[in-house]
Structure formats: structure tokens, C-alpha cells
Amino acid sequence: HVQLVESGGGLVQAGGSLRLSCAASGDTFSVNVMGWYHQALGKQRELVATITRRGSTNYADSVKGRFTISRDNAKNTVYLQMNSLKPEDTAVYYCNARDFGNVDYWGQGTQVTVSS
Q: How buried is 95 (Cβ within 10 angstroms: 0-12 exposed, 13-18 middle, 19+ buried)?
């Protein structure tokens, strides 16, 4: 089993930046892909970005060029650097870890609010 704890959300003005962190514990040796998803009020949870253990990344079109995902395997931590934030980025951001058996684990979520 894998536990995930997110931090770094908050309130920021449009154009500003935030950095999210997600620390994994437990059976971290089994984790392959880590990533971030967001869920705006009344909407479905959507992919933001993912990164494999080897560092291959994937981004939603809406965040390409603005967000950067990175991973420190030694610390079992994944980061999301969010720049040029827009009001439409407002959502609860969830950390995800997927193990080699394709089992998903989720963090508790952290609120990101971007004011116009």
C-alpha cells in the first residue's frame, strides 16, 4: 500500500506561481507513474501531468508551457511547478501514484485558487 500527502496549495493572483509537493510513503518501491490531477467544482477529475520512474513526462494541453512536473525518486516525492496561473486553473489538485500492477493511490487533495 502507498500513502500520499500533498502540500503547497493556496490562493494566488492570476499570473502568479505555486509549487505543489507530494510525498509518498509505504510500498514506494512498487510505484511506477506519479502524477497530478485536478477537479474543479462540478466537473470530473482530469489529468494535469504525469511522470514515470525514468522521468518521461506527459501534460494536458491546457498546462503545456506553464506547468512542470518533476520527481525525486530518492525522496519519493513528486512536484508540480505551476507558473502563469489562470483563474481556470482553480481546482482541487490530487496527487496520484500508480504501481506496476496498475493500482491507483490518491492523496487527500489540496485546493488551488487563482483570483482574477
A: buried
Chain segment 48-59, per-residue pLDDT in tens:
999 999 999 999
Find cell 487527500 and name the residue: 108
Q: Tell me how far apart the alpha carbons of residues 88 and 82 are, in angstroms, rounded to a whole number.
A: 13
**What kind and span of H or E run contains 44?**
none
CB count within 10 Å of CB 7 equals 13
Average pLDDT (84-94) is 98
**Beta carbons within 10 angstroms of residue 72's beta carbon:** 11
pLDDT band, very low/low/confident/very high, at 66 (cuts 50, 70, 90)? very high
Query: Rounded distance, CA 73 to CA 70, Å?
Result: 10
Query: What order do you get walking across the sheet with 67-72 strand by strand?
Result: 2-7, 18-26, 77-82, 67-72
